[in-house]
Amino acid sequence: MATPRLRSRKLSEPTIARLPIYQRIAEGWLARGEVRIDSRQIGELAGVTATTVRRDLAGLGTLGTRGAGYEVKVLAARIGEALGHDRRYGVVVVGIGNLGRALVNSSNFLIRGAQLSALYDIDPAIVGTEVAGHVVHSIDEPIEHATVGVICVPAPAAQAVADRLVEAGIRGLLNFAPQVLSVPLGTAVHYVDFSIELQILMYHLNNGTGPLGGGLLHSLGIAGANATRGA
How far apart are CA 143 and CA 120, in angstroms? Predict the structure, then answer.
């Protein structure tokens, strides 16, 4: 089970949400053999200002040198450490329908340090089958202890599943069901709702706001690869 660590500076929720994007950009440049990247280049790819990038990364401690930018390898590693990629923890998934099955079979689902511990479903046609190298258990069986529980069930069943996960000692829930959950203090819930994300995207398109310059719609690490590096 992952254990919390002290952090010298508390990061804001928007900053935390942008860090994985910055890391993906840094890893893309690292894969292309690039050594350094500056805040302007990161901002262009992420769809934010260079000032926002510098402010976000300042929360991770001293990283860059003014006028020289950031060392790509160090940047990727430091962000990974902040996001807990250097620790190991278990993940259980409840609901192995179309969405759940697609998630556990995706190579991008689990970050470094995360390990798929167990799968659960209520459908007798799914229970007992093998998915992503794991036999699917019945939700009526005891829930294996893990750090994170992923909920991929219909909205009416989401609260009951959340209750089962919390009872099993799981304190981090990733909820794909379009349902707000009630959980005790000390339990973190993150919601992923594709319909909401689509609505936000359409708002930006209709109102000319947001990262309309491309942001992560650029091929990461390609745009501006040979641009002059600045602050």
Answer: 8
